[in-house]
Amino acid sequence: MCVRNYNNKPVKFFLFDIRKCDHHRLPLSTLRFLTHKSPNKENLSRVNMSLTSVMISDVLSPAAERLRYILGEEDDMPTPTLFTEMDTLQQDGDELEWKESARWVKFEEKVEEGGERWSKPHVSTLSLHSLFELRTCIQTGTVLLDLEGYSLPQIVDEIIEQQVDEGMLSPDLREKISFVLLRKHRHQTKKPIHRSLADMGKASGGGARHAQSRSMNDISDTPSTDQLRNKFMKKIPRDAEASNVLVGEVDFLDKPFVAFVRLAQATTLGGLTEVPVPTRFLFILLGPTGKAKSYNQIGRAIATLMVDDLFSDVAYKARDREDLIAGIDEFLDEVIVLPPGEWDPKIRIEPPKKVTSADKRLDSMFSLNELGQPNGAAGGGGGLAEDEEIVCVCGRFCGGLFLDIKRKIPWLLSDFYEGFHIQSISAVLFIYLGCITNAITFGGLLGDATDNYQGVMESFLGTALSGTVFCLFSGQPLIILSSTGPILIFEKLLFEFSKNNGIDYMELRLWIGIHSCLQCFLLVATDASYIIKYMTRFTEEGFSSLISFIFISDAIKKMMGSFKYYPINTDFKPDYVTAYKCECLAPDPSESILSLDWSQLSKKECVKYGGSLVGNTCKYVPDLALMSFILFFGTYSMTVSLKKFKFSRYFPTKLRKLISDFSIFMAIMTFVGLDRLIGLKTPKLIVPTEFKPTRPDRGWIVLPFGKNPWWVYLASFVPALLVTILIFMDQQISAVIVNRKENKLRKGCGYHLDLFWVGVLMAACSFLGLPWYVAATVISIAHIDSLKMESESSAPGEQPQFLGVREQRLTGILVFVLTGVSIFLAPILQFIPMPVLYGVFLYMGVASLSGIQFWERIKLYMMPSKYQPDFPFLRHVPLRRVHLFTLVQIICLAVLWVLKSTVLAILFPVMMYYQQSQWPCFGIHSSTHQHANDLIGSKCWLLMK
């Protein structure tokens, strides 16, 4: 086939019959190429339309083409979830009854042969022959769509009347069929665990009858008591509807009686269903005796189809019998057959952790819409990604800032009332302990670096002030502000420079903060945050991995410090216990206090009066280092175990989730109690108890003039520029990691608004002499993880679905308010051992690595190819390229790790900016970023070229 493009040049397309191909479909890339949007849309509109008509006939099978029009219709109402129940006709003494044999919400559950319990949910395994027989049943049986039915007897009469009118059923059998279909239904229900001995006796004497409930009056429109009490309703989503399958054999039929019914309105048909869910579909199959197994397999086939996402859509939208048959044919196109000699049908397949969504199946089935353009996810080639549309150059003054504010105003109320949830309590406790530990650590380091101009008290006050203001007014309140390593190094260098040159440190720092604030305002006004468009997976993973490793290494280093301060006496010998001693010696006999008996002084008194401790047991505290390690590693291990507890098989789902949410708090309380029980003097959390500056000769307000020459006020612009780059890159990289699409944030981001408030807080903290704050990656990730939401009602066997994050401002505000009032909580906080908090730090670092693809690719080095997980990027990228790309990341991370403790650490954001600015030089532009990131990363895509 030959068409002409917009330059009037011939373009050849070679179309072929894909039904002769192995996979029955053209690759999506081919479809995108054939329907690629040209800059000149008018000249190509006829080409696209003609290509569409040709390609649809050649690419799609007749069934898929029919489904394309059925499922392509606009429908405001989503298809309800179907609960399917299969009842089989059985003889109970002299009476016939319908007994529940299986049920489906997503996966199949069978009544075990003993009849007393349900099987575990499992994937339905169907015989191919049963699917073809089902197709024949739909093709030859009665199909009633949108039947006005209000009760089971009326529906049965309509079905029988239809069959009699069509000559498919003899009028003489009318009463017999009606009698069978209106028999009572017996449903499988669960009995309480605490059954009496009398119940057990009935179980042994009366079979399984006690474990089942009978619906004696099936024609009642109201649900029975057993239905209303059925706890299985918790597993069924709201607004679900029922599909009932009735199969059995009778002796008065010589050919099958088949009917498929869709009611116009879902109707509660009394005790037909085990749960009080209105019925929408009915499938009835009665046949001659001798083929019960075949009927049962056909019933399982239609039940499995009814819970299939695509077929259920077809069943709801079908207009005639042929639409249903097309749905079965498309299901057959996707069916995978297992050889009978290589698989035991009795083995039940466990439900997968992740199931392909209906949208992806539709995309693989047909990727063209009515205009011949790629559908939604199938396209991917045109337009900007969602984040790129949000962060763009608006072309007007503060345009991005105004858009951020406009985006956030509609969510203002929900940002507060959505925080009123029990999950928020656990998040507040977790992040609060992490923040105060971080504040104490950085406050102590700042005090050492700045001669106590900034110390622990300033760190607490600055954390409380900056965090509260940011969570109240920022664009992304899930971000947690904290001090960072590069800022600490900058403060140290600035203090040394001021000291060596006779410049007042606090006044110089104030002017640097003012200039940096103005520079941040300039970046906001010019929409400079648009640079995050060039942030790739390479940058995100490198930055978050570095911060995670810093948290892990610092936690371990601080723990090892306990072994240095309280060493383990490995040379202890019980036989020489008399040789161990520690004496207090006077510093100088001529200057010593003669009235003191130095040999009788305690350790504290000896040090107080200038004496020296001599002996091999002076620093030895029995069991203290080992106890600290138990508290450290125990807190980490218990937190990890309790976090995973929600995936265990013990206790109800809600209790497991509650334990998982409060895992960190429970671990901390457990080991605080253990520490108090044993009574060893382990190092404890030290919190300031007085509201006053750490350094006595400074106040809470820093004056801008009077101590430095005038030129310092202007020259401070230069170091402020470095601080601005530092703040900008740290803040925006952390924000990109928080706002990544995997977190499913629905309220949007606010990069410009975040940077605006960071700049305001820079100036405010400078005037108050408080540390500067920026987004803390690891603590922010921990904040998000503690607020993740999962579906409450999931089908049996189905993994809870991740719904997103509880986006609100309340948890952050409470965390920082508690941080500010911590000086009043000192009597309580002083009981928390520092090793316990080091364990929390270790958990935060390890947990933040779990969602990083870089860490997963590192583990591939130690796995043989046949044992490697089925990652999507391994399907598209050669393994050697994956290893090469990972090696480049490891080398870059190692370089940053070596430099992190030196003065060059403050250049890390500059290096990040330089790296991002080089992508256009390699020919990697925004249109290729998204595709490359979906595989593995932009640089790996470059290596493939």
From TrEMBL:
Keywords linked to the UniProt accession: Cell membrane, Ion transport, Membrane, Sodium, Sodium transport, Transmembrane, Transmembrane helix, Transport
A Gene Ontology molecular function term of the record: monoatomic anion transmembrane transporter activity
Cellular component GO terms held in the UniProt record: basolateral plasma membrane
Cellular compartments annotated: Basolateral cell membrane; Membrane
Domain Bicarbonate transporter-like transmembrane residues, every copy: 396-912
Pfam families associated with the record: Band_3_cyto (PF07565), HCO3_cotransp (PF00955)
InterPro entries recorded: Band3_cytoplasmic_dom (IPR013769), HCO3_transpt-like_TM_dom (IPR011531), HCO3_transpt_euk (IPR003020), Na/HCO3_transpt (IPR003024), PTrfase/Anion_transptr (IPR016152)
Membrane-spanning intervals of the chain: 427-447, 467-490, 510-532, 624-642, 662-679, 710-729, 750-774, 810-829, 836-855, 882-908
Residue span of region Disordered: 192-224
Biased composition (Polar residues): 213-224
Residue stretches making up the Band 3 cytoplasmic domain: 212-345
Reactions the enzyme catalyzes: 2 hydrogencarbonate(out) + Na(+)(out) = 2 hydrogencarbonate(in) + Na(+)(in); 3 hydrogencarbonate(out) + Na(+)(out) = 3 hydrogencarbonate(in) + Na(+)(in)
GO biological process terms held by the UniProt record: regulation of intracellular pH
Membrane topology: Multi-pass membrane protein
NCBIfam families tied to this protein: ae
Similarity comment text for this entry: Belongs to the anion exchanger (TC 2.A.31) family.
Name of the protein in its database record: Anion exchange protein
The organism of origin for this protein: Oncorhynchus kisutch
